[in-house]
Amino acid sequence: MLIKFYIKPRKGVLDPQGRAVAENLRSLGFENVKDVKVGKYIEVYVNETNKEKAIEEAKEMAKKAIVNDIIEDYEFEIVED
Questions:
Q1: What is the Cα Rg of the chain in Å?
Q2: How many structural domains is the chain composed of?
Q3: End-to-end CA distance of the chain
Q4: Which residues does residue 75 pair with via DSSP β-bridges, in sequence order?
Q5: Hey, how many other C-beta atoms are within 10 angstroms of the C-beta on 34?
Q6: Residue 7 burial by CB count (10 A; 0-12/13-18/19+): exposed, middle or buried?
Q7: Of 48, 61, 70, 80, which cross-links 54 as Cys (Cβ 3.0–4.6 Å)?
Q8: 48-71: per-residue pLDDT in tens?
Q9: What confidence score (pLDDT) does residue 43 get?
Q10: CATH number at residue 23
Q11: What is the extent of the structural domain holding 33?
């Protein structure tokens, strides 16, 4: 199975990279850009056939190694082979 993690800064947390991208887009004429958040996308392939077990494993991975829950929010999805 494939676990796809989508991670972004929490609301209210400074995101200098997102700010730089937003300013660059505005300077290129994209005046409607209000805000940009720059995050991470991570794929983890696991040898698991039980989707419920994969979900629990994904939560543990996020908690222990992938996400800094003080400054980041995340979502994940499980893709079955």
A1: 16
A2: 1
A3: 5
A4: 6
A5: 6
A6: middle
A7: 48
A8: 999 999 999 999 999 999 999 999
A9: 98
A10: 3.30.1280.10
A11: 2-79
CB of 74 closer than 8 Å to CB of 7: yes
CA nearest to 5, candidates 64, 13, 27, 31: 64
Residue 33 is which amino acid?
V
Contact assessment for residue 58 and residue 35, using Cβ atoms and an 8 Å cutoff: no
Residue with tokens 């222990």: 64
DSSP state at residue 64: I
Q: What is the DSSP string of 41-77?
A: EEEEE-----HHHHHHHHHHHIIIII--TTTEEEEEE
User: Tokens 């980041």 sit at which residue?
Assistant: 72
Token pair, residue 51, equals 């989707």
